[in-house]
Amino acid sequence: MFDGRQTIQPECRGVCAHGGLNLQTLLKLSRRIDAFTTTIGRWLSWLILLAVIISAGNAVIRKVFDVSSNAYLELQWVLFGVVFLLCSPWALLNGDHIKIDIVNHHLPLKVRSWIDMIGHVFFLVPFCIVLLWTSVPFFLVSYHQNEQSFSAGGLPQWPAKSLVVICAALLLVQAVSEIIKRLAVMRGLLPDPNKLALSAHEQAAAEAERLAEAISSETTH
Questions:
Q1: Which end of the chain is more exposed for a tag (fewer CB within 10 A), N or C?
Q2: What is the pTM of this model?
Q3: Which residues in the chain show pLDDT less than 70?
Q4: Residues 6+ apart with CB under 8 A from 47
Q5: Domain positions in the chain
Q6: Tens digit of pLDDT for each residue in 200-220?
């Protein structure tokens, strides 16, 4: 996993002085993108708590006072959409998207680097561009029409549709950062991000060991 605190390998400082200057400039840009993505992700993730509070409050009011609101119901969906869409760049930064760990974890660094680079350049970036290209008119039509909910008392629809545009833009920017970092790994300027990572099997084994220790400590007391 990469984070905003990228460190340059000591043995690579000579490379940086001879032809690595441009990449160093790009790495500074990458660090700023990562810091921005992390800040956005951490703040917006709290909206899950707000969605839970609204959901619980709406359920209590409906049961106790027999009153319901489509606005509160749709607000829950919008908040979930904000977290799901706008936190996706943060998930990409932290490597939380699904990978085939049983294969990827055992591949050499060079092979993994090329897989990530090809995936980002030929799949993720084009996907973000197409999504951005198609979602902007989708949002603008809704905005100019001041599209409203089909449900009585519901919320306007265009703010929710704007999330697709914002997601595509943020994800594209983070994809650029990931490409820069992967290039730096391939050049030896950054350490292997998966060097200390555990495979899915190792994670499950570690969790089972932790639970066994917890149960054992409870029984002894």
A1: C
A2: 0.76
A3: 1-21, 98-105, 192-207, 218-221
A4: 79, 82, 83
A5: 12-196
A6: 555 566 667 777 777 777 666
